[in-house]
Design goal:
- The protein is α+β, with helices and mostly antiparallel strands and about 300 residues long.
- It folds into two domains: about 70 residues, no CATH class; about 210 residues, Roll (Dipeptide-binding Protein, domain 3), CATH 3.10.105.
- It is built from ten helices and 14 strands.
- The strands form five sheets. Strands 2, 3, 4, 9 and 10 form a five-stranded antiparallel beta sheet that branches. Strands 1-14-11 form a three-stranded antiparallel beta sheet, with no helix packed on it.
- Strand 12 and strand 13 form a beta hairpin.
- The longest helix has 18 residues.
- It is globular, with a radius of gyration of 21 Å.
- The protein starts with a strand and ends with a strand.
């Protein structure tokens, strides 16, 4: 490439100390000049980098949605599920968990995140995907005759940010009239515990990133009966049939149909609150060129990148 040297290989490092990596990038000396991170910057580093090295910060979206998903077998009343969505302390939980509001966590009320063809915007709770309304949540619990309804969800014990976010969720739920009972789980057991249909919980936090930009990468695995990643154990024969009908449509008609199905799912069943979309806040050294965000993959544009100055 005329701008510099094409990349022959990458030296990938995993489980690195985040603070050390970020300081290396901020210093921009030695190997820091030809390094990058595709993990989200911490809030403090993002603020510093935005002021001193904004030209080396890469922002963008990524096709990932997060949910605080009630177990559909247990939390059967739609008003209770909506009350959870109104009680959830979106912004406070994001900040406590080390996320950057509007950057590495973006609000939204739809299942399919921005960038998915056919996506339809809607807002069942009327909270713009980020406003907490304990009074409205409490009114729904009273309507359902479920004041004091117990919410049990897992969190990773020993993780400072996970515990801080958990504390904010407890506060939000209790203010709205729920009984909050978080369950501490070790990091090595967390995934299996959450996926186990017999675990003593009735809400499962999870995130999902699509493999390709289509509703076909969202609804069959997440909301079809027996779906591979159906963490809420959602099951409605009528909805299963609608998924099958879209899959059988001509490919050029599917995008719009998935968008309408997204809206239909939440307006008809409200399976639980979307608690935000992931966002990218990555950084690179001064000798790295061509680094942008691939919004389909949520990754750096590896094929376009090069190194300047040897």
């Amino acid at each position: 490439m005329s701008q510099g040297n094409s990349v022959d290989s990458w030296n990938m490092k995993f489980t690195e100390d985040t603070s050390k990596t970020e300081q290396t990038l901020l210093a921009d000396t030695g190997t820091g000049q030809t390094s990058l991170t595709d993990e989200a910057l911490t809030a403090s580093t993002f603020r510093e980098a935005s002021q001193s090295a904004s030209d080396r910060v890469v922002l963008g979206s990524t096709p990932c949605t997060y949910m605080f998903a009630p177990d559909y077998r247990q939390v059967k009343d739609i008003d209770v599920r909506k009350a959870i969505g109104l009680a959830y302390p979106y912004v406070d939980a994001w900040k406590a968990g080390g996320l950057i509001v509007g950057v590495t966590r973006q609000p939204g009320s739809e299942l399919m995140p921005p960038g998915i063809p056919g996506r339809v915007e809607y807002d069942v709770l009327g909270n713009e995907g980020q406003e907490t309304d304990p009074a409205a949540a409490k009114a729904l619990l009273e309507k359902a005759g479920e004041m004091g309804y117990e919410i049990k969800w897992p969190y990773i014990k020993g993780d400072d940010q996970a515990e801080a976010a958990k504390d904010q969720v407890v506060k939000g739920l209790e203010e709205a009239g729920f009984k909050a009972s978080p369950v501490a789980v070790g990091i090595n057991q967390y995934s299996d515990f959450r996926a186990d249909p017999n675990s003593p919980i009735n809400v499962r936090p999870f995130g999902w990133c699509s493999d390709w930009p289509s509703g076909g990468s969202w609804f069959p695995p997440l909301f079809k009966t027996g779906g591979s990643n159906n963490y809420s154990f959602f099951s409605e024969k009528e909805f299963d049939q609608r998924i099958d009908e879209v899959l059988e449509m001509p490919i050029d008609e599917q995008a719009a149909a998935w968008g309408e199905l997204d809206k239909y799912l939440f307006e008809t069943y409200y399976p639980g609150p979307v608690v935000g979309y992931a966002g990218v806040a990555a950084m690179h050294g001064s000798k790295v060129g061509g680094m942008n965000n691939d919004e389909v993959a949520g990754e750096p544009t590896w094929k376009d990148m090069y190194v300047t100055g040897g």
